[in-house]
Write a structure and sequence with these properties.
321 residues; Thrombin, subunit H; Cytochrome Bc1 Complex, Chain D, domain 2; six-stranded antiparallel barrel
Length: 321
Amino acid sequence: MKEALVRQFGNPLALTQFEGLPTNFGDVEGKVKSVEASAADARLIRFQATGLENAYDKLQGLPLEWTSGKSQGQISRIKEYDFETGTIAVEKTAEIAPQPGDTFLVECTRLQFGRDLYNRHCMHCHGMTGEGTGPTSRYLNPPPRDFRPGIYKYTSTKSTDKAQVQDLERTVKEGIAGTYMPSFKLLTEDEVSAIVNYVIWLSIRGETEKKLVDELFLDYSQETFKERTSESGGETPEEVNEELKEYMELDFPDTLDFATSSVAEAWEEANLEEALVIPETPRVPDSPASRERGRKLYLSDKTKCATCHGPQGRGNGSATQ
């Protein structure tokens, strides 16, 4: 399953483009200008490229798809990149033989830009994969949000829908009062957009993984395996393993595609105009009288807010004891 996820999404250290996602990957077209001479046993091929002058300057690790020449249709990984000279190094193979004039696409430049910003500003709390367990998280209460379930609190959509892009951008810009989520207003609009683009990618990857785990857990978890191979279960370990192998070969690819597409579709639908929830009545103006009404409702048996959140909003209500 891990291998399938890496093929579909890559991972935070080696991104991969998958056309079925509502993600701005950011392809950049380039052309080989010249190829450096290299020894027959050289591990890398280096060439100078044009067309990347306005692209993100950190392309190392990204996939490069050859779109013309002998290497057309092949995918390389950029092993080295010098922005100043436009020199790219890729692994030397029998299929990869770039010549001057050959064209290519560098994929995931936008996603990598967002990843690098995320690693700089967000990863220490939210973690490498968005799991909410970064090195700083142990000191924070409330803890950082886990992005992988794709559930966000402050949204302009229905409670069962995904967040809109503008909801997440607003959270990044404004921060969240009462938590350790700070405001990032010093970032540019483009930087905020790139971070949110990457966070949504983490959410889609994480929720897809959760769906796959749930699919396999019922029949193939360690506990189920023990039950099925026990005396009362009547199956042998070899039979269960063979069944799992057959499932992974024949059925799992379709399960992966369905899980990915269903999660991606939910994010696409949430960002349609009709998904926006527009209140039918305006918000009550803030006043001493409205605050008092709110206080009474908060403490009342009608709403029971204080049962969980506590009389002072400290999260120590009677239901938490």
